[in-house]
């Protein structure tokens, strides 16, 4: 679960979804990417909000490690922007997106190597906005998770071999473990606030 980097202030001539990252937001996203990459937090698949600041966050992270935002393994979804502001609905919507988008990526022609491992994806990264990101992470692990700009929470869970992503994301609260939080300043182990 990754919250986008710090964005420019809104102005009357621009839609909120079109706000760009600040210079500091770009730098901090790059540092978070390094902290995550050094620890092997590399996604098999990424679901990213279609907002400009989310796309730019992923783009900057990709400059630090090409695995972030890899072509054929990244989907940009406008709904991740819209659902972030709805109380208590982000986790359910994220589960629906994962079920739908993993199927779309898995349907790539077999000769496209970028799609080869998608059906067996073990790590999915969601890039988006608060309050939805914090709510979803908190619901999944059953403890408060605080996501500041350009901060990523690694959640993990043991599952049965026949479990699907939709199954494990839609099941009740507290089934996941918060492993750590990656910030631009490094890793905070078992952090519930940073």
From TrEMBL:
Sites where the protein binds substrate: 53
Biased composition (Basic and acidic residues): 13-27
InterPro entries (UniProt xref): His_Pase_superF_clade-1 (IPR013078), His_PPase_superfam (IPR029033)
Top-level division of the source organism's lineage: Eukaryota
Chain residue ranges for the region called Disordered: 1-27
Pfam families: His_Phos_1
Protein name, as recorded: Histidine phosphatase superfamily, clade-1
Source species: Ostreococcus tauri (Marine green alga)
Lineage of source species: Eukaryota, Viridiplantae, Chlorophyta, Mamiellophyceae, Mamiellales
């Amino acid at each position: 679960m990754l919250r986008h980097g710090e964005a420019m202030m809104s102005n009357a001539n621009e839609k909120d979804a079109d706000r760009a990252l600040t210079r500091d937001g770009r730098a901090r996203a790059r540092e978070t990417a390094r902290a995550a990459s050094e620890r092997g937090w590399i996604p098999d698949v990424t679901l990213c909000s279609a907002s400009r600041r989310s796309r730019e966050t992923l783009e900057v992270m990709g400059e630090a490690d090409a695995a972030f935002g890899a072509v054929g393994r990244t989907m940009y979804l406008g709904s991740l922007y819209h659902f972030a502001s709805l109380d208590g609905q982000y986790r359910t919507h994220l589960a629906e997106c994962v079920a739908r988008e993993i199927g779309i990526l898995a349907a790539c022609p077999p000769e496209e190597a970028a799609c080869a491992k998608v059906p067996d994806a073990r790590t999915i990264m969601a890039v988006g906005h608060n309050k939805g990101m914090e709510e979803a992470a908190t619901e999944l692990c059953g403890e408060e998770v605080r996501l500041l700009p350009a901060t990523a929470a690694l959640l993990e869970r043991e599952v049965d071999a026949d479990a699907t992503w939709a199954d494990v994301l839609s099941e009740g609260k507290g089934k996941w473990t918060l492993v750590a939080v990656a910030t631009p300043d490094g890793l905070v182990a078992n952090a519930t606030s940073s």
